[in-house]
Each structure stands twice: as structure tokens, then as C-alpha cells.
Amino acid sequence: MAEHARAQADLFETELKPCPEAAVASGSHVFFVDAVHFVFGTFLSCLWPFVDLRAGGVGPAAVQRAGAWDAVTRGLIAVTNTTVVNTESMCQLLRAIVAA
Fold first, then answer.
1. What's the pLDDT at 58?
2. Which of 39, 31, 33, 37 is nearest to 72 (CA)?
3. Distance between CA 85 and CA 80 in Å, rounded?
């Protein structure tokens, strides 16, 4: 475990940390992109009593999200839907990045 933590720290210091500074210097942007697929499962049943379903009647397991964090402006661009995160939703995210 310590070896993996050291490898992650090295990757952060040598590859990721310099990216925002280089982007600012060149007038470009760096986006860190991720997507979340919420999972239906029995472990969620213990959370349902605590979920506020008044907001549109959609529970947390029915929402899929993809987002891009701009490391230069520190802004977040997100795409949310109630189906799945797939190629189309990632293209939607890319179009949102271009529009921003």
C-alpha cells in the first residue's frame, strides 16, 4: 500500500501538478474529467429513509453525472441525466466544455 501511495504522489508531483501552470503560461486550459454511475443495490435500501424525495421524486441512484473541472479557472462543468453515462453523455459534456 505504501508503494502505491508513493507512486500516486510521484505522479501528482511530476505529471499533474505542473499542468495548470503550463496551461496558464500557454493560454490554454486543463480539464480533469470523471463520470459517476450510481449503482442500484441492496446497500442503498438502508439510505432510502434518509433521502429527500421531494426534489422531483428522483432518488440518488437514478441520476448519472459526468463532469469536467477546469484546473485553470477552477470551474466545474457538469452533465446530469437520468439514464446512463455513455458516449452520448460524454459528447454532451465535451460540447458543454467547448461552449464554456
1. 46
2. 31
3. 9
Give yes or no for a contact between 93 and 77, defined as CB atoms under 8 angstroms apart: yes
Q: What is residue 7's three-state secondary structure?
A: helix
Distance of CA 90 to the CA centre of its chain: 11
For residue 85, count other CB atoms closer than 10 A to its CB: 20
Say whether pTM exceeds 0.85: no
The 3 state secondary structure assigned to 24-83 is HHHCCCCEEEEEECCCCCHHHHHCHHHCCCCCCCCCHHHCEEEEEEECCCCCEEEEEECC
Strand partners, 30: none
Phi–psi pair at 40, nearest 5 degrees = -75, 135
